[in-house]
Amino acid sequence: MLVEELAVVDTTSPLWETMRPVLEAALRLEVSDATSSWHGWNKAQVEAFLGRCPSHCSILVAVWETLRDEQGRERDMLRIGWVGELRDGQVRAIYTLDTFTTAGLSAIEELEPGYEHALEMLRVAKARVAPVAWALFTDKATWDTWLFATASDGGVLDKGVLLTSLTRQGRCVLMGSQAGHHH
User: Fold this and answer.
1) Tens digits of per-residue pLDDT, 115-150?
2) Domain boundaries, the chain
């Protein structure tokens, strides 16, 4: 799942704090046996997903949360934003979206959940990392539902089926070169 010397870029970004628990879970799954799981995920499921991706590509995650500013107005703020670089079914590097502001990506505080900023993120990830195989754009509640859901017995859940269901409900958007192949 992960290369031996994984590169993590921009650990000073606040967005890194939202990636760290996911990476720690992936590391635990990496060294676990076939029966271990984490919130419905298991090693075989993650490896199967990574193995179906193109030999060199990236995956992008952008998650917004609606917050109130000092004046009490609601505003969507990017809370989770990172790009993973994959090569031959393994994660080689993880970048926060903050990394790409020097490459022309709008400031994190300015990114909004809409197609213009989604396309901007895809463009920068492709130019700086690799073509984007999968990009998930969603809200925090949907992200938490997908990330932490387990089967009714508390075990492994087919996360692809759940993501398809959430997409069909309009709760998230999948983009990228592989999104058209998603069932």
Assistant:
1) 999 999 999 999 999 999 999 999 999 999 999 999
2) 2-67+74-181
Residues 12, 94 contacting (CB under 8 angstroms): no
Cα–Cα distance measured from residue 60 to residue 128, given in angstroms and rounded to the nearest whole number: 12
Cβ distance 20 to 28 under 8 Å? no
3-state SS assignment for residue 90: strand
The answer to whether the beta carbons of residues 128 and 103 sit under 8 Å apart is yes
User: pLDDT category, 165, cuts 50, 70, 90?
Assistant: very high
Cα separation, 134 vs 86, in Å, equals 11
Q: How far is CA 92 from CA 30, 89, 104, 175, 182, in A?
A: 14, 9, 23, 21, 24
Question: CA separation (Å) from 132 to 41, 86, 160, 165, 177?
Answer: 23, 10, 18, 22, 6
pTM above 0.70? yes
List, in order, residues 6 or more apart from 156 with CB less than 8 Å away: 37, 40, 41, 42, 45, 150
Please report the pLDDT score of residue 120 as a whole number: 96
* 142/63 Cα distance (integer angstroms): 9
